[in-house]
């Protein structure tokens, strides 16, 4: 039901002229912050010269601890606490990086890529079966973060997997 609800919301949003990758009712921030703090505004998801979002939003605070390191080409286990937010860190291996989602007990997850200064790189997007990957233009060698949170209420222990790749194909 959650997947169907997400698809319906995305279709309705798109039918009204919105871009489901850029904010909207279905991509509320996990910390209840105003949408201008969690997604790129104005429909722009282009990167500026620093690899951050081309916008004037307030940067998101990246936690100093509790961040899971990711390796390109390797699936990383995710496990969201009840209505929690999970953070991942990686170093971009190429100018275009793909993020892949594999459901477990959690069938849908919002993800957002942030540069090391907390600026958003593209909007938050819901990944689920049928829409299980996105790509982002980054600066190779720069550190980035992925912030993930559930689409709706989830119980503690909701597992999933997330991976990075330099191609559209998910890792084995």
Topology:
Blueprint: H1 2-15, E1 67-69, E2 76-80, E3 86-91, E4 96-103, E5 108-115, E6 125-128, E7 133-137, E8 143-150, E9 158-165
Parallel strand pairs: 1-3
Antiparallel strand pairs: 2-9, 3-8, 4-7, 4-9, 5-6, 5-8
How would you sum up this structure, described in words?
The protein has 172 residues and is mainly β. The chain is built from 1 helix and 9 strands; from the N terminus they run αβββββββββ. It has one helix spanning 2-15, and strands at residues 67-69, 76-80, 86-91, 96-103, 108-115, 125-128, 133-137, 143-150, 158-165. The protein has a 5-stranded mixed β-sheet with strand order 1-3-8-5-6. Strands 2-9-4-7 form a 4-stranded antiparallel β-sheet, with no helix packed on it. Mean pLDDT is 74; it is low at 1-28 and 31-56.
């Amino acid at each position: 039901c959650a997947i169907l609800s997400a698809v319906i919301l995305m279709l309705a949003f798109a039918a009204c002229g919105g871009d489901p990758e850029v904010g909207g009712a279905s991509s509320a921030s996990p910390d209840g912050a105003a949408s201008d703090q969690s997604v790129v505004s104005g429909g722009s998801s282009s990167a500026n010269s620093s690899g951050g979002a081309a916008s004037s939003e307030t940067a998101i605070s990246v936690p100093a601890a509790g961040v899971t390191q990711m390796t390109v080409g390797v699936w990383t286990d995710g496990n969201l606490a009840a209505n929690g937010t999970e953070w991942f860190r990686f170093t971009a291996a190429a100018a275009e990086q793909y993020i892949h989602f594999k459901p477990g007990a959690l069938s849908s997850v919002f993800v957002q890529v942030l540069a090391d200064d907390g600026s958003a790189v593209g909007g938050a997007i819901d990944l689920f079966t049928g829409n299980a990957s996105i790509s982002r233009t980054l600066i190779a060698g720069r550190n980035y973060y992925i912030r993930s949170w559930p689409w709706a209420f989830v119980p503690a222990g909701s597992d999933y997997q997330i991976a990075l790749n330099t191609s559209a194909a998910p890792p084995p």
